[in-house]
Structures are given as structure tokens and as C-alpha cells.
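Notes for week 9. Today we move from apo structures to complexes. The key idea is that a small molecule is not decoration. When we ask for a structure prediction with flavin-adenine dinucleotide present, the ligand SMILES becomes part of the input, just like the chain. The input block below holds both the sequence and the ligand string. Read it once before you look at the output, and try to guess where the molecule might sit.
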Amino acid sequence: MVNHYIPSSLKEALKVLNNHDCYIMAGGTDLMVVKHQKSGIVPNFDKDVCYISNLKELQYIYEDEQGVHIGAGTKFVDIENSMIVPDLLKQIIHELASPNIRNMATMAGNIANASPAGDSIVGLYLLDAKLELVNVNGSRLVPIEKFILGVRKIARKSNEIIKEIFIPHHDDLNTYWRKVGSRAAESISKVTFAGGYQVEDGVVKDLRMAFGSIGVTCVRDQKIEQKCIGMTVEELHKNIDNILNDMSKNITPITDQRSTKEYRYKVAMNILKDFLNVIE
Ligand SMILES: Cc1cc2nc3c(=O)[nH]c(=O)nc-3n(C[C@H](O)[C@H](O)[C@H](O)COP(=O)(O)OP(=O)(O)OC[C@H]3O[C@@H](n4cnc5c(N)ncnc54)[C@H](O)[C@@H]3O)c2cc1C
């Protein structure tokens, strides 16, 4: 038999996690699907569950000089409607699942689920997001790319919770988002891409490229980005084939029920080309 805990404060939740091996449940939109058996039969939880969706302490969005802070319990709908969240993330959320799921689901759940098709993860990689993890002993700040280790593998200690997602300001970054799925809503991604660039006096000052659904984790190769920074836009456009060639080594999709690896590879390359051509 498993127990469930509904702590009324973050402090209490951390004590529960310190004393019991628990699943953390936020919106439950991933966890309930994973534990679902079949219609009419209760989900199959093999260990205790700690619910956090009622914790008001985790539901906030604010900004300071460094960036935007999003509490881990904040629902996607509130992030999408916020005036201070970067447009890229709002665009990603707008195409994620459907309004009913966005009313329940959290960005922290999307991150901790660590699916290669987790849409918000791609935008968070692009924007250099960091996660604040807390336990009874204190807290630590971890870059998202150090937190997600593989398919459904994360660097979370069993007594830790994601408390906050921090996104540094990138006020001058132009952003670009493409999600390819089977339909407009309720669609798990076949390929996603987030791009970012900044051009000053015809020179590329910043360039970022992040792919989802084409590898075990989100793919962002900062060595390729650095090679492009400092080029004029004209040089960048002349080098598109070289950039595609460099990036192709990172694009290692699989064939699954949603798509084939050949389709994903081709689409990823086409999107990248389109993005690089947009830069002016
Ligand atoms: C119909 C449907 C459509 C969907 N469409 C999309 C889509 O288009 N794109 C997409 O990316 N996803 C999609 N999803 C997946 C899901 O909705 C998202 O991944 C969502 O963000 C999960 O958030 P949640 O709060 O519901 O997480 P939960 O299900 O509560 O938890 C998910 C995982 O995160 C862990 N977790 C949650 N909160 C924390 C925390 N604060 N600290 C540490 N661990 C935590 C849980 O233990 C669990 O392992 C869809 C799901 C459904 C059912």
C-alpha cells in the first residue's frame, strides 16, 4: 500500500521528501499518464506520493535585475499570460498541449519529466535557464543542461524539489520557434527548434540554436554558435551549408510511433536553414 501526503507548506513538503521515498506530483499530467493502467482501474503507484500543486509558496512570477523567476508550482496558463515572461516561452506554451492541460500542468513538471519531446525545455536551454533545487539542508542552482541527464533521467536527489526556474534577461535577443507535430493542438512534437540571434551593425553578436525531439536530450552546441558569432550577416548566409553540416552531426533522431528518423532529420535541417535565412 502507498501513502499520499498533502503538505500545506514547502517546509512540510521538504520534511516529507526527506523522510519518505515519494513521487512528487504537481499537475499530474505526466505522472498520471505514466501510472495509468486502464479505464476504471486506479493508477498503479509503487511508492508514496507527495502532492505539491496546492503550495502557494511555489506559485509566483517576478523579475529583478538579473532575470525572471518562475515558481515551480506556477501553471502554464499563468506563465503564458504573464507580461514579464520572455515571448519565446509564451509562444512555446501557447502551442503546448491544450488549454485544459495548460490549466493543470507546470513547467517544472515538464522539465523533471525529462522527455526529449518536452517543449518548454528547448526554450529554457536557449535562454540559459537555471533551476533552484531545495531540500531540508539548503538550496543549489543548476543550469538546465546539467539537470537533464537523459530520457527521464534528472540530477535530482530524492529529497529535493525544484523550487524555481530562473531565466536571465536577454532583452536584445530576437527569437524564433518552430514545433512540428501531427496537428495544431494536443500534439506531441516530432521536431522542435528554438533559435535566438542579435545583430548589431550587420555583425552577428549572439546566435543560439536548440533542437528538441531529435536526440536523447535537447541539443544545443555552443561551439557551433561561437564559430558564427562575429561573422557579418552576409558571411553567415554564405556559411549556411557549413553550419548545417556541423550541426548535422548532433541530429540523431529515432524512429517511433510519431515519426521516422529520416523525416525528423530532414525537417530539422530545413528548419535550421529557414532560421539562418531569417537573420538580417
Ligand atoms: C493530453 C496531453 C498532451 C500533452 N502535450 C504536451 C505537449 O504538447 N508538449 C509537452 O512538452 N508536453 C505535453 N504533455 C506532457 C505534460 O503535460 C507536461 O510535461 C507537463 O508540463 C507536466 O507538468 P505537470 O505539472 O503535470 O507534471 P507532473 O505530471 O505532476 O510531474 C511530471 C514529473 O515531474 C516531477 N515533478 C513535478 N514537479 C516537480 C518539482 N517541483 N520538483 C521536482 N520534480 C517535479 C514529477 O515527480 C514527475 O516525475 C501532454 C500531456 C498530456 C496528458
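The CA atoms of residues 26 and 153 lie 18 Å apart.
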